[in-house]
Write a structure and sequence with these properties.
This protein is α+β, with helices and mostly antiparallel strands. It is built from 17 helices and 22 strands. Strands 8-7-18-19-20-17-21 form a 7-stranded mixed β-sheet, with helices on both faces. A 5-stranded parallel β-sheet has the order 12-2-1-16-22, with helices on one face. A 3-stranded antiparallel β-sheet has the order 5-11-6, with helices on one face. Helix 1 crosses helix 17 and helix 5 packs antiparallel against helix 6. The chain binds flavin-adenine dinucleotide. Flavin-adenine dinucleotide binds next to helix 1, strand 17, strand 21 and helix 17.
């Protein structure tokens, strides 16, 4: 009997456990344990219902174009629970000099693909619009070394594009800053476009033309979620795992390798043939320091930022008065604490009754770690004050919920991909050890599902169990 320990019961660890479970049910002589330090599984995936509203404490959805999370939902019998974002209402604003400016139609991240909406948009100055026109003639450039997203974007479109779009968009996804994040790790497609076409505008149009010719399938919604929230995925996966394999409230505080395998200490010590490390890289570094100081140093160098989501419920009058669309982003140059706000009731169906408005605001990020220490009442006061300044919202919320996520968002700094290569080389010395989680090759839920699945497959290989075609576990 081969034994595998999974350390961390977030979506990465659960995806790994689900893969092992499929093999176990198909007859692999295998046993596994999921260690989770908190009382519940799911990590940052938490859904709560308040006053008829569905509140997501962490992620509210995942990108539809990345299939791994939707695939997992279908495998656990949630195919009929998948919902798409209300893309007919998909408008997003950027705060520019105290006023909301709509992101113009045809802008793909920061690349304009439609001329008139961009020309007429108040989002950019004339200078930046001229840079956008000039970008069309940007020569192909094979980057020898990694660089920051800010340097890359500035080369193409100038500093205003960094401040007004690249930075706020990245702080929404990574809680990070364009001036710190690696273009190769965070925007690999853009780096490839620059190498092949020079101009991102020309490359984007060529790619869209190819896609339009290849596919007659109607466009899918940008985001996918679940009717009852992201917690549904956690519950469905967990319900397919044997209760005896799930150890919540059990923090792993030591891991040691030996000739015979691995010893995991969490209260008492247990022997395993393989380990899937699905806890954040900083924790993995601490746990693996005795095993390999070099590996631990590489893992510890992956930085994290924190995030706070502040959810506010209002009545129908607020809902009617809000601007249409999904919400707005706030560039740092605007001098606010808030990074973004989502109009949740517009973004997805089933999130709030018709007589309620639900807003979800974000604070935190790389430059504002100390905000995590603020009491809830102070955070809510700041957010309400800023909502009043930005959208003129003076109503008192009917309810509020604050969720703090300390060190939850991995930051892929310049040189991240090279670091991953070094980590992979170091891991070759430890065939029984695999890593999963948002610290490595993608921070989104689908990437984490993929990383957990791949880690489980590698662990199976490591213990010599590979021959079984796993069944689908819809119940
Ligand atoms: C506020 C917020 C909003 C987000 N929004 C989106 C979104 O809309 N779409 C999207 O795709 N992604 C989003 N993300 C990113 C995505 O949700 C995360 O990257 C992903 O869920 C991380 O999963 P994980 O399992 O790797 O890590 P985690 O969820 O952090 O799980 C790691 C687990 O390890 C446990 N652990 C730690 N140490 C130990 C130990 N010593 N022993 C045992 N267990 C331990 C922790 O308690 C935790 O449960 C968001 C993230 C946050 C924080």
């Amino acid at each position: 009997m081969k034994r595998v320990a999974i350390i961390g019961g977030g979506i990465s660890g659960l995806s790994a456990a689900f893969t092992l479970e499929k093999h176990r049910r198909a007859g692999a002589w295998l046993e596994y344990v999921v260690y989770e330090s908190t009382p519940r599984l799911g990590g940052v995936l938490v859904t709560e219902r308040v006053d008829g509203c569905l509140i997501e404490a962490g992620p509210d959805s995942f990108l539809t174009e990345k299939p791994w999370a939707s695939d997992l939902c279908r495998e656990v019998g949630l195919g009929d629970q998948l919902i798409g974002s209300n893309d007919a209402d998909r408008k997003t604003y950027i705060l520019v000099k105290g006023r909301l400016a709509l992101i113009p139609d045809g802008l793909m991240f920061m690349v304009p693909t439609k001329i008139m909406p961009t020309v007429l948009s108040p989002l950019f100055s004339v200078r930046t619009k001229l840079r956008m026109a000039g970008e069309w003639f940007h020569p192909p450039r094979k980057a020898d070394a990694d660089e920051t997203v800010a340097a890359f974007v500035e080369r193409h479109y100038g500093p205003e594009m960094v401040d007004r779009l690249a930075d706020p968009l990245l702080s929404g996804v990574y809680g990070g800053e364009a001036s710190q994040l690696s273009v190769r790790a965070v925007l690999p497609r853009f780096a490839e476009m620059e190498a092949s076409h020079g101009s991102l505008g020309r490359a984007m149009l060529a790619a869209r033309k190819r896609m339009a010719q290849a596919s007659k399938v109607p466009a899918r919604p940008l985001f996918t979620s679940l009717k009852d929230g992201m917690q549904q995925l956690v519950d469905a996966v967990a319900s397919r795992l044997p209760a005896s394999a799930l150890r919540t409230n059990t923090s792993v505080h030591a891991v040691q390798s030996s000739q015979e395998g691995w010893t995991v200490t969490a209260g008492n010590s247990n022997h395993f043939d393989a380990i899937i490390m699905a806890a954040p890289a900083q924790i993995a570094a601490e746990l693996l320091r005795i095993t390999s100081g070099e590996l631990a140093s590489e893992l510890a160098a992956i930085q994290y930022t924190s995030s706070v989501t502040i959810n506010l419920g209002y009545d129908r009058t607020v809902r009617d008065a809000l601007p249409p669309g999904f919400g707005f982003l706030v560039p740092r140059s605007e001098g606010k604490r808030m990074l973004a706000a989502t109009f949740v009731h517009n973004k997805f169906p089933h999130r709030a009754p018709d007589d309620r408005a639900l807003l979800r605001c974000f604070v935190g990020g790389a430059r504002n770690e100390q905000i995590l220490q603020m009491p809830d009442a102070e955070l809510i006061r700041i957010i309400c004050e800023e909502l009043q300044q930005i959208i003129g919202l003076t109503a008192e919320p009917l309810f509020t919920r604050v969720y703090r996520w300390k060190g939850a968002m991995a930051q892929y700094g310049v040189g991240h991909l090279e670091r991953l290569q070094r980590i992979e080389t170091l891991l070759q010395q430890f065939p029984g050890l695999t890593l999963a989680g948002n610290a490595y090759r993608g921070i989104g839920v689908p990437d984490c599902v993929r990383s957990g699945t791949e880690a489980a497959n590698k662990a199976l290989l490591g213990v010599g169990l590979t021959e079984i075609a796993p069944p689908v576990l819809s119940r």
